[in-house]
Every structure is written in structure tokens, then in C-alpha cells.
């Protein structure tokens, strides 16, 4: 940041302001997504943050970096949003089948996937000396889902301390809390999060191990080979489909679910690869037997543990434009 650019921005030069904040857009949006679990809400809160920064630029004193100042605005805007918006169940499209009895009914039904394309330019390395989570883990669906179960203040403290690497005193200043309150909230948040971490790391993205597993998954999925699908999964696999509340845990429960939906899935003829949350994903297309046109039916995101699939999450098509997925394929 140069003094000249800051001076121009304070004088009303929008181009100078854009040049100041553009390097931080992607990481601020990712931070809002971690806070809220919703891609669309994260985009809205990014715009709110930038507008607040533009209107309040005269009050930026430069005692902290511009990046830290933007994080302060974004985090507090997200906290205000969480306090003002009571999460209600998101209406889900009616299921074409009667699902088997789920293992449990999920609590994070507003969750949306996050396109890897929006992570370009976000620092990969730990951004501060206090960080405990690598960027790849901290954007995964499992991590973001677990974060949503934390109370808002614990959520903010965990992200500032363990993902962004701010020291306790810095996080306290950003949130307007005492250092003791930050330390206490972090201890409680870590206790909750530690139980959600996988001990078996996934294979390298786009590596040969991942490529073979993904090819087998696509083949089994499009051919309706339930036994082969389950053979690719861990014994404690999770199958989810937000905003529908049904969640299935374990190979046996997953087998019951995929068997129940098998007849409906038989029209699936194309799986267009994308990536979401640093994980393999596909747009799922089903062919209309009359017109021959394939229609987008959902977005499948999987998580890997070692050489097996440990999570399968199916999303509705609402966020398809963010993945550049067309509604139909000829």
C-alpha cells in the first residue's frame, strides 16, 4: 500500500481504492464463506465489507495493515449477520424416492460448495505464526461444516487464530474482546474441532492415486454399480445432501441409500468434472430419453481419506453458475 494510493482513495478515487483492496478480495470472501457456510452470503458480505471500507476509509489510521483492517470489518459484519439472521431450514426440492431411515438429520442445511476457481490468489501457506490449519484443510467441506456448529464468537476466534494466524492480542483487538475472552473461546472451539479432523490425509490433488480413484467413482456412479461404489468408500463414510436433512453414516447405511435411489440415478449419463472446497466434484447430468438432452441434476463433491472416499455430498443446482456448469448438454 502506498501513501499516494491511499491519499487518492480518500479523495474519492474509486480506481485507487480498487487497487488497494483488490489483492485481498479473494481471501476476504473465503473468510466470509468459512464464517457463514454459504457461497451466496459470502459474496454479499464481501460487497458489504468493501462498501464499509470505502465509506470509512477516512477513519483508517494505518496502525494495522489494510489487510487486517479489512478482516476486522468482514469478521464483524459476518457476526452481525449471524446475530440478525436466525438460520431456518432451507426448502429442499422434493426427493423423487422415499429415502431410507437416515443415521441422523443434519444441522447445517444451508451449506453450499465453494468453487476452487475462487481460491486462486488466496495464500496457500499458513498466513501467521499462530495458524494450526493449512489452507487446504481450512476450506474443506468437513472443516466448514464443523465451524458452522460453533457459536458465532467461537467461530470468529478460531478462524482468526488458527486459520489466519493472528495472535491472541491481535484477535482481541479485531473483535473488541478481552484477550482472556479470546483465549477462553479458542479453547472451547478447539475442543469441538479436534474431534472432526481426519487422521488419514487425502492423496495429492490431480495425482495418479486420486485420478484412478475418481475414474472408478465416475464409472460406478454412472453405471449404477452400488457394490462398486461402496467398495470405494471407507467403513465410516458420510453421505449428505443439503438442504435435505438426511445424512447416512457408514458403509451399510450408504449402501441402503444408493440402492434406494438407484432407479432414479439410472438416467445419469455425464459427470462434468469441477473442483469445490479443494475437493473433487462433478456436475451430474441426466439424459431425457425423449429429447436426448442432458439436464444438470446436482453437484457431487467427495472427500478422500487415503485411497478411499470418506464423504459424498450432493448439492442442488443453485450454485451451478459459479462453477460455469451449463443447465443442459446436447
UniProtKB/TrEMBL annotation:
* Heme is among the record's keywords: no
Q: Where is this region: Disordered?
A: 188-212
Annotated RNA polymerase sigma-70 region domain ranges read 20-87
* Keyword Acetylation attached: no
Q: Which UniProt keywords apply?
A: DNA-binding, Sigma factor, Transcription, Transcription regulation
Looking at the record, the residues that make up the SnoaL-like domain are: 215-311
Record InterPro entries: NTF2-like_dom_sf, RNA_pol_sigma-70-like, RNA_pol_sigma-70_dom, RNA_pol_sigma-G_actinobac, RNA_pol_sigma70_ECF_CS, RNA_pol_sigma70_r2, RNA_pol_sigma70_r4_t2, RNA_pol_sigma_r2
Q: Which positions fall inside the RNA polymerase sigma factor 70 region 4 type domain?
A: 142-193
> One of this protein's Pfam families, by short name?
Sigma70_r2
Q: Which Gene3D superfamilies match?
A: 1.10.1740.10, 3.10.450.50, Winged helix-like DNA-binding domain superfamily/Winged helix DNA-binding domain
- What's the subunit arrangement here? Interacts transiently with the RNA polymerase catalytic core formed by RpoA, RpoB, RpoC and RpoZ (2 alpha, 1 beta, 1 beta' and 1 omega subunit) to form the RNA polymerase holoenzyme that can initiate transcription.
Which PANTHER family does the UniProt record give?
ECF RNA POLYMERASE SIGMA FACTOR SIGG, RNA POLYMERASE ECF-TYPE SIGMA FACTO
Family per record: Belongs to the sigma-70 factor family. ECF subfamily.
* Protein name, per record: RNA polymerase sigma factor
Q: Which organism is it from?
A: Nocardioides vastitatis
Amino acid at each position: 500500500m502506498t501513501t499516494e494510493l491511499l491519499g487518492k482513495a480518500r479523495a474519492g478515487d474509486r480506481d485507487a481504492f480498487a487497487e488497494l483492496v483488490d489483492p485481498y478480495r479473494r481471501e476476504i470472501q473465503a473468510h466470509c464463506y468459512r464464517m457463514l457456510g454459504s457461497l451466496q452470503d459470502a459474496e454479499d458480505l464481501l460487497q458489504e465489507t468493501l462498501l464499509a471500507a470505502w465509506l470509512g476509509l477516512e477513519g483508517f489510521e494505518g496502525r494495522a495493515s489494510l489487510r487486517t483492517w479489512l478482516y476486522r470489518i468482514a469478521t464483524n459484519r459476518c457476526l452481525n449477520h449471524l446475530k440478525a439472521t436466525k438460520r431456518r431450514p432451507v426448502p429442499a426440492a422434493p426427493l423423487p424416492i422415499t429415502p431410507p431411515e437416515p443415521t441422523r438429520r443434519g444441522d447445517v442445511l444451508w451449506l453450499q460448495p465453494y468453487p476452487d476457481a475462487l481460491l486462486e490468489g488466496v495464500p496457500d501457506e499458513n498466513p501467521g505464526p499462530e495458524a494450526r490449519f493449512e489452507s487446504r484443510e481450512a476450506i474443506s467441506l468437513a472443516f466448514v461444516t464443523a465451524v458452522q456448529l460453533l457459536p458465532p464468537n467461537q467461530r470468529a476466534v478460531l478462524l482468526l487464530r488458527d486459520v489466519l494466524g493472528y495472535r491472541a492480542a491481535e484477535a482481541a483487538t479485531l473483535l473488541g474482546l478481552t484477550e482472556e475472552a479470546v483465549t477462553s473461546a479458542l479453547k472451547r472451539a478447539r475442543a469441538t474441532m479436534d474431534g472432526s479432523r481426519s487422521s488419514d490425509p487425502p492423496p495429492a490433488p490431480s495425482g495418479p492415486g486420486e485420478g484412478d480413484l475418481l475414474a472408478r467413482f465416475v464409472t460406478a456412479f454412472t453405471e449404477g454399480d452400488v457394490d462398486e461404489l461402496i467398495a470405494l468408500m471407507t467403513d465410516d463414510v458420510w453421505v449428505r445432501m443439503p438442504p435435505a436433512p438426511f445424512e447416512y453414516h457408514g458403509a451399510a447405511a450408504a449402501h441402503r441409500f444408493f440402492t434406494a435411489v438407484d432407479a432414479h440415478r439410472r438416467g445419469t449419463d455425464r459427470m462434468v468434472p469441477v473442483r469445490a472446497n479443494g475437493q473433487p466434484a462433478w456436475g451430474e447430468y441426466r439424459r431425457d430419453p425423449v429429447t436426448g438432452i442432458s439436464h444438470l441434476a446436482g453437484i457431487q463433491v467427495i472427500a478422500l481419506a487415503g485411497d478411499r472416499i470418506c464423504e459424498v455430498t450432493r448439492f442442488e443446482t443453485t450454485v451451478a453458475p459459479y462453477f460455469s456448469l451449463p443447465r443442459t448438454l446436447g
